[in-house]
Amino acid sequence: MIVNLYNKLLYFFKKGPIKKSMNVLFIRVIGVFLFFSLTLFITNFFDPKLVGSYDYSRSLLTILASISVLGMNQSILYYSGVLSSKEALHEIKDVYHKMMKITVVISISVTLLILVFNFFLGAFFLEKELSTILFKSVIILLFYSLLIVNIDTLRALKKVYLSEFFRNILRYTPLFLVAIILYLTNNQKWLLEGFLLSLSLLGIGSTIYILNYFKKYKSIVVKNNFSYKSIIKRSSPMAISAVAFMLMQSVDIILLGKFTDLAVVAYYASSVKITMVVGLVLTSVNAIYAPIISELFSLNSFNELKVKLQDATRLISILTLPVIVFIAFSSKLILSVFGDNYEKAQSALLILLVGQTVNMFCGSVGIYMNMTGKQKVLQSILIISFLLNLLFNWILIPIYGMNGAAISTALSMAFWNITGAIYLLKKDKIKTFLN
Fold it and tell me: How far is 175 from 198, CA to CA, in rounded Å?
């Protein structure tokens, strides 16, 4: 029986997409190691308020960039699947150029609007410290938005490993080096500026690389001409979904900054970062399966699609459940490594793990909906989830602090995953959840 189970697992892990997912996961594990090494370094050697400023800026940029990219980081994977099914992937060059122009226009517009708001009304809505962070963060919004589109463009070009190298290695290494230099030179106060500078350089560097890569397609003949209007129409529902999703992931930190202080933000953010390890598997698997889902759906290969989705969900569960159990039983010890007082976030961490467990069992709900033309349904589900999240955070944070933020996030995460899984079961007879 044990030998039979071993052989089944061996066969399962040798499947093409699963093997590729494991390779992507390996790169992301290295990225998580770098990210946590960076986090542990700054939480132990930098003032908690400086760490809180950094985490607050990360949350702001996450929200603003999700608006600026207009969902194009997701839709370019859809176009990749469609063009691959027509053996015309090289035409993604035309799509990328149009997406880049749209990103530039939106990013600059958002930046100007935020700067005007901050100049005239910032003092009424934000404390001076938070207003300064907002000003500095929005200045590099264009570069960060381009970086997000570029990372997924590399995935669309089937350069998955290079995409993951940008996402997980280059994203953290420069800042880690900057943080070490700042500490050794006793200039810790420049942590936020070092973070923003490293993102800017990555955005510029990744753009230069992709534009140079596309030079080999100088004589490209575009047969599948996607207009600006069609790209925006396809991407905008994904954008609204992405904004709602990012808000759900960030509004707890934003409101903690409003109702408490930046030190509490730093403590709570440590628990959020730990749960990123759990989400690591899901995002790694989705990185491989997104274009596959789009391609199979375009070819009407529904039986194969169902098999691929079940493979994805099983892989997610096999790899994630042991991690959740380990973190739950070692939560206090793990948090203590971050530095003094970070153990205060233990209850918040355990609550967030509950939400991640539901996320794990439901599988690739969001990716499936985005890749199969159900962006508007996902958009509606995520908007409702965000509104619930915002309401719960507003009510619970003043009463329960970090635990209130964690409860709000876990409930909204469970709501949208379960609702989406039930909808897909009824609509497409597709089981994204573990069964």
Answer: 6
